[in-house]
Design goal:
By secondary structure, the protein is of the alpha/beta class. 47% of the residues lie in helices and 16% in strands. The protein has helices at 17-30, 49-61, 77-89, 115-126, 147-159, 173-185, 202-212, 218-226, 231-251, 266-275, and strands at residues 6-11, 37-40, 66-71, 94-98, 131-136, 164-169, 192-196, 256-260. Strands 1-2-3-4-5-6-7-8 form an 8-stranded parallel β-barrel, surrounded by 5 helices. α4 runs parallel beside α5 and α9 (231-251) crosses α10 (266-275). The longest helix has 21 residues, at 231-251. The protein is globular. The structure holds flavin-adenine dinucleotide. Flavin-adenine dinucleotide is lined by residues 41-42, 44, 69, 71, 96, 98-101, 114-116, 135, 141, 143-144, 149-150, 153, 157, 166, 168, 195.
C-alpha cells in the first residue's frame, strides 16, 4: 500500500436530496481507501455555485478533505473573492481552479479570461493559504489548434501559482507520459495527476471523448461497440482496460490517481482493489 500513489475522487453536486443522500453513501464506500481528498465540480458559469458549496460542506462534515472546483469565466473578481471567503469560513483550503466554459447563450466573459488569471488572483489576494490544483490536457485542450501553445499556456498557468495539476481523462498512457516530459522541459515541476474515467457507460464516455478530442483506441471502441447492450461484458472489459492503464501509469511514476466517479463507487473501488489498494 505504501508504494501506491495517493487517490482522489471527483463528484458532481447532486440535484436532489435523494442524490445527496446517495452521495454520502458513495463517500462512505470510498473513504476506506484513504483518499487525499474528494473534489466537487462547479457548473458552467457558476450554475451550481450553491450546490457545489453545500456538497463540499457535506463531505467536510463527514470528516474528509473536500475541494471545490471553481471556474472563473463569466465571474467578477468580487464574486470569486466572496466565494473564497465562504469556503475559507468552512475551513476549506484546497480547490481546483479552472477557466470553465460559458453556458450557451451567455456572451459576457466577465473579468477573467483564463484559469491562469484565477490562479494569479488567488495568490495575490490569499497568498499561499490555498492548495491550488489546475487542469491539464495530455491530448491538448480541444479549443487549441497548436500543441506547443497549449503546453506553454499550461506552463504559464502553473507558474502563476498552481501546486499540482489533474489531467483530463485519457486512455493512451503515452499521451500522459509525453505531456509530462514536455512540460518538465518548460520548467514545470509540480505533480501532474492522471484523471481516470472508468467505463461507467460506454456510449456516454465515447460522447464525452468525441466532444473533448480524447482518443479511445480503436481496438477498445470496436470491442465495446460489438458488445451492444451486453452490460456485463462492457463492465468486465472496461475494468480490464482501465486497470491496465492505471498499472502502466503507476509503474511509470504517476504521483496520484484522480477518479472521475460520476457519483458512483463500484468501478473505482474495483479498480483500486485490483491495483492493490
Ligand atoms: C480535472 C478537470 C476538472 C474540471 N472541472 C470542471 C468543473 O468543475 N466545471 C467546469 O465547468 N469545467 C471543468 N473542467 C473543464 C474545463 O473548465 C474546460 O476544459 C475549459 O474549457 C478549460 O478550462 P481550463 O481551466 O483548462 O482553462 P485554461 O487553462 O484557461 O485554458 C483554456 C484554453 O485557453 C488557452 N489559453 C490559456 N491561456 C492562454 C493565453 N494567455 N492566451 C491564449 N490562450 C490561452 C489554452 O491553451 C486552452 O485552449 C474540468 C477539466 C479538468 C481537466
Amino acid at each position: 500500500m505504501s508504494t501506491l500513489p495517493s487517490l482522489s475522487f471527483e463528484f458532481f453536486p447532486p440535484n436532489t436530496s435523494v442524490g445527496s443522500e446517495k452521495l454520502r453513501g458513495v463517500v462512505a464506500e470510498l473513504a476506506p481507501l484513504a483518499p487525499a481528498y474528494f473534489s466537487v465540480t462547479y457548473g458552467a458559469g457558476g450554475s451550481t455555485r450553491d450546490k457545489t458549496l453545500s456538497t463540499v460542506q457535506d463531505i467536510a462534515a463527514l470528516g474528509h478533505e473536500a475541494a471545490p472546483h471553481l471556474s472563473c469565466i463569466g465571474s467578477t473578481r468580487q464574486g470569486i473573492a466572496e466565494l473564497l471567503e465562504l469556503y475559507r469560513g468552512q475551513g476549506i483550503r484546497r480547490l481546483v481552479a479552472l477557466r470553465g466554459d460559458l453556458p450557451s447563450g451567455v456572451v459576457t466573459a466577465g473579468e477573467f479570461r483564463y484559469a491562469s488569471e484565477l490562479v494569479a488572483f488567488i495568490r495575490q489576494t490569499q497568498g499561499r493559504d490555498w492548495l491550488v490544483e489546475v487542469a491539464a490536457y495530455p491530448e491538448y485542450h480541444p479549443q487549441q489548434r497548436y500543441a506547443r501553445r497549449d503546453l506553454e499556456h499550461f506552463a504559464h498557468k502553473v507558474k502563476a501559482g498552481a501546486d499540482a495539476a489533474i489531467t483530463q481523462f485519457f486512455f493512451n498512457p503515452d499521451a500522459y507520459f509525453h505531456f509530462v516530459d514536455e512540460v518538465r522541459k518548460l520548467g514545470v515541476t509540480v505533480p501532474i495527476v492522471p484523471g481516470i474515467m472508468p467505463f461507467h457507460n460506454y456510449a456516454r464516455i465515447a460522447q464525452f471523448a468525441a466532444r473533448d478530442g480524447i482518443e479511445i483506441p480503436r481496438w477498445v471502441a470496436l470491442k465495446m461497440e460489438g458488445y451492444m447492450d451486453d452490460a456485463a461484458s462492457i463492465r468486465a472489459f472496461g475494468l480490464d482496460v482501465v486497470t491496465r492503464l492505471c498499472e502502466r501509469l503507476v509503474a511509470g511514476g504517476a504521483p496520484g490517481i484522480h477518479f472521475y466517479t460520476l457519483n458512483q463507487s463500484a468501478l473505482s473501488l474495483e479498480i483500486c482493489r485490483r491495483l492493490g489498494y
